[in-house]
Amino acid sequence: MLKEIVIAFQSFEDARIFIRRNRLFRWILLPGLVYSVLFITGMIFFWQSSNEVVSWMSQQLGVENWLQKERSEWLSFFFVMSGMMLRLVLVLFYFSLFKYVILIIGSPLFTYLSEKTEAIIDGREHQFVWADIKKDAARGVRLALRNAGWQSVYLLALLLLSLIPFAGWVTPVIALFLESYYFGVSMLDYSLARNEFTLSQSIAFTGRHKGLSIGNGFLFYAMHILLVLAPAYAVIAATLSVHHVKNR
Fold first, then answer.
1. Domain boundaries in the chain?
2. What's phi and psi for 124, nearest 5 deg?
């Protein structure tokens, strides 16, 4: 799996060179700007609401009054850490839902961009066929809904685990790996669909090559430092990484 994570990481550098060489910047900037505005607006709203949720839970459980009564620095430290972990998992939970909305809305564009990338790799002219775009986009929506259901189950379990001292402190890391994996699954499927993988075969393939999915998703999150580039870069990098593994 580690080797595949390295391949996924290298594919992002390959994507940067590929985009510059083939002048694909217009396919990066416009969806990236829309994504950035929606993401920043949503994160501000959700961070405020997550603080209110944690404060409400603390009041309902009487945690603050109990801590003042006990006057224990260690207990205060544990509950402050648990509150931080809970907030982080809540933010990742929101990010998960937001990500799937973007995957569903942007599925036609991501399908087109993945097809165009593979056509350039194979040295052939890209033919725009709306029927194919529509079919692959519908498949992408089905996969996104399937992944959203499973990931929500896991994240709800992590929300409960985050309330437990010590054990709950690792939940943001687990949640990040889950986020990365499921995002990578959706990105890789655009290429696998064109290689005549059924949806179940695609899921089985990404299950065997978890490193590609995790690496692609992790760098997608890392690229939120440059929000505008994140979605389209992930699609192109995923297509390049599938091409690399297929040839290997």
1. 2-247
2. -125, 160
Closest CA to 234 of 132, 138, 106: 106
Total-model pTM: 0.70
H or E element at residue 50:
helix 26-61
Kindly list the distances between the CA atom of residue 137 and the CA atoms of 38, 43, 112, in Å, as whole numbers in the listed order: 21, 27, 9
Cβ contact 230:32 at 8 Å? yes
**Position with higher pLDDT, 50 vs 104:** 104
* Structural tokens at position 124: 């052939």
164 secondary structure, DSSP code: S
- Burial class (CB within 10 angstroms; exposed 0-12, middle 13-18, buried 19+) of 70: exposed
Q: Give dist(CA 152, CA 154) in Å, integer.
A: 5
Tell me the percentage of the chain whose pLDDT exceeds 90: 0
**pLDDT value of residue 28:** 75
DSSP string, 56-124: HHHHHHTHHHHHHHHT-HHHHHHHHHHHHHHHHHHHHHHHHHHHHHHHHHTHHHHHHHHHHHHHHHHT-
The pLDDT of residue 108 is 83
Q: In the predicted model, what is the mean pLDDT of residues 169-198?
A: 84
